[in-house]
Amino acid sequence: MFSSMEGKSVLVTGGSKGIGKGIASVFAKSGCKVLIVARHEDKAKACADELIKAGGMAAAFGADVTDLKSMEKAADFAVRTHGGLDILCANAGIFPQVKIEEMSPEIWDETVDTNLKGAFLSVKACLPALKKSGEGRVILTSSITGPVTGFPGWTHYGATKAGQLGFMRTACIELAKYGITVNAVLPGNVATEGLADLGPDYEKTMAASIPLKRLGTVEDIGYAALYLASKEAGFVTGQTIIVDGGQIAPESLEALAQA
Ligand code: NAP
Fold first, then answer.
1. Which of 157, 202, 223, 227 is an active site residue?
2. How far is the CA of 56 from the centre of ligand 1 (A)?
3. pTM score
4. What percent of the chain is modeled with pLDDT above 90?
5. Residue 76 backbone class (left: φ over 0; alpha: ψ -120 to 50; beta: rest)
6. Residue 140 lies in a domain
7. Does the CA dihedral 193-244-251-155 come out positive or negative?
8. 3-state helix vs strand vs coil in the chain, percent to 5
9. Ligand 1 center to 177 CA (angstroms)
10. What is residue 214's predicted lDDT score, i.e. its pLDDT?
């Protein structure tokens, strides 16, 4: 039996849609006070309203993870609104699909700034409040793309997702003295609004390559994050959980076909 998460204060970056919205919803249903952070405050607010309507405790704040001052204001808002901050889900990310030959340095920088530097700035901004928690938790949303697999058009993206794990492996050592754990969830292909932009056939083809024959749900990722945030995961730090329906397991298409 897991300890109650009732009353824990959690900040979810990129919580207004997709995986972040799923994480926010799972934490809200578990009794946490959730602050949804995204650049479009109206969308973050709409999401918080949905969670409140469903019986949860939620608020919204417009902030950009590429801007330290903006994230410090978000962390401060969480402390003022929810009486402290126990959990940071550093989830905000972008994934413009561009192959090396077409990629501009600007697209590379924007992706690195958002996904990698953004994770660092989110942690840095939330650190003073997480230290006060005594049982602080940082959960990064990485990906299988980069740390484990590759996909054409995502060199920059894969580099940021692998980079997040490099960041995590030293951050967990630095922050252990404050009782803060730092872990990462590595989603496979998850059905989100963002994925829909990649075209109608993409979802079908991807589902066929997954042993469990479906894409992940945003809640699948939320539950893995919830475990890492739990009291019971207090001795787990610097680790990764892959949530991919077995996608990275088959060594070839033949291995899938013979199952
Ligand atoms: P999504 O649906 O496109 O949502 C992205 C969220 O991040 C939005 O709330 C967006 O809101 C926010 N965001 C983007 N840039 C931001 C910034 N600079 N500052 C603050 N918020 C920002 O994306 P998703 O598919 O759920 O992906 C979420 C995370 O999961 C990403 O880190 C991604 O790499 C990872 N992931 C996704 C998949 C998948 O299959 N979808 C698989 C593996 C890993 P605003 O635009 O309003 O800022």
1. 157
2. 22
3. 0.97
4. 94
5. alpha
6. yes
7. positive
8. 50, 15, 35
9. 30
10. 95
Reported as type and span, the H/E element at residue 241 is strand 240-243
Domain-embedded: residue 4: no
Number of domains making up the chain: 1
41 domain-assigned: yes
- Residues touching ligand 1 (Cβ under 6 Å) are 13-14, 16-20, 38-40, 43, 64-66, 91-95, 114, 118, 141, 143, 187, 189-190, 192-195
What's the pLDDT at 60?
A: 98
| Residue 53, domain extent | 9-246
Backbone angles phi, psi at 25, to 5 degrees: -65, -45
Q: What is the DSSP letter of 73?
A: H
113, amino acid identity: D
The tokens for 57 are 């405790």
115 phi, psi to nearest 5 deg:
-80, -40
Q: Are 101 and 75 a contacting pair, CB within 8 Å?
A: no
CA distance 60 to 77: 9
